[in-house]
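In this supplementary section we document a worked example of the pipeline. Step one takes a protein sequence of length 180 as its only input; no multiple sequence alignment statistics are reported here. Step two produces a three-dimensional model, which step three serialises into structure tokens for compact storage. The input and output of this example are shown verbatim.
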Amino acid sequence: MPLPKESTYTIDDIYALPEGERAELIDGHIYYMAPPSTKHQRISSFISWKISDYIHTNHGKCEVFTAPFAVHLDETSTTYVEPDISVICDPNKLNDKGCMGSPDWIIEIVSPTSKRMDYYTKLFKYRTAGVREYWIVDPSKNQVVVYNFEHGDMEQYTLQDSVKAGIYDDLSIDFSQINL
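The serialised model returned by step three reads:
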């Protein structure tokens, strides 16, 4: 007897979800998302504010977007993600549906249900899609893992450290300033 065919979902299935239900689509598989915790939101707000302030102060061209914000990593209709923070420096990648192509910098804040996705699945997808830099902020492990894909580097920090951004010469995020 043949095995049942596994369904492959597309972006149309994501847009057909009931209002208020969030999910990501990776290689045709739907991954439902739980609402973020207060700690998660504090970290996300602090980081996005620091990056936005830096860009504004330095008259930069990049833009910062926080979840929920659609990122279509490639031209297939089977991958759609909503990173916690996306920094996009090419305005041609932006339209009314979100970012079409890879952001320059993505930051994911790990929640108990997203560990495997953030550390493995998304790491691979972001690297192969052309993301320049990927940070994984993990409050339960008290760590920040920084992948600089342009240089092939990976470094680990704690949530008490100041972490330098690779895509900017003089931006650091001091995680000890976050009220956790």
